[in-house]
Design brief:
By secondary structure, the protein is α+β, with helices and mostly antiparallel strands. The chain has a single domain, classed as Nuclear Transport Factor 2, Chain: A. Helix content is about 30%, strand content about 35%. The protein contains 5 helices and 4 strands; from the N terminus they run H-H-H-H-E-E-E-E-H. Strands 1-2-3-4 form a 4-stranded antiparallel beta sheet.
Length: about 140
């Protein structure tokens, strides 16, 4: 029997990051909330897996961590995390504010706002929700 990797917000983020590390794009797709904007672009799992095989095979997650969480409401949590991602030999540090929504018995990834080093140049461990709250670009995808 398979265990549900999406039992709480932290477990959902951990499962997604571990899936990215091993190239398990199916699990990443499965973690999305039914109302996620991402699913408007990839309406089927097979369509996304084809895209991932063609476009994401050069992507490597080398390190990541969860910095903080905040509860927005019952069933909605934001998770603040950072990640080092390499694409074709170039490494970039990204900061993400992920929105997770409870759907039945599991927590699903809805959308995220990302910042780069151009947006936040301070120590990784000091990234805070205020950096996202003050960002001029509020695009969530």
């Amino acid at each position: 029997m398979k265990t549900n990797p999406f039992t709480d917000p932290t477990s959902t983020i951990e499962a997604r990051m571990q899936a990215l590390e091993r190239g398990d794009f199916g699990l990443i797709y499965d973690s999305y909330h039914p109302d996620a904007p991402f699913l408007a672009h990839f309406t089927s799992r097979s369509e996304y897996l084809l895209f991932a095989a063609e476009q994401l095979t050069g992507t490597a997650l080398s390190d990541w961590g969860i910095a903080d969480q905040r509860i927005l409401s019952d069933g909605q949590v934001e998770v603040l995390l950072w990640m080092r991602v390499g694409v074709d030999g170039n490494t970039q540090l990204l900061f993400e504010l992920a929105l997770l929504i409870r759907e039945g018995e599991q927590w699903c990834y809805h959308s995220a706002q990302k910042l780069t080093r151009a947006d936040y140049s301070g120590p990784v461990g000091r990234i805070a929700f205020s950096h996202f709250d003050q960002a001029t670009e509020k695009i969530r995808f």
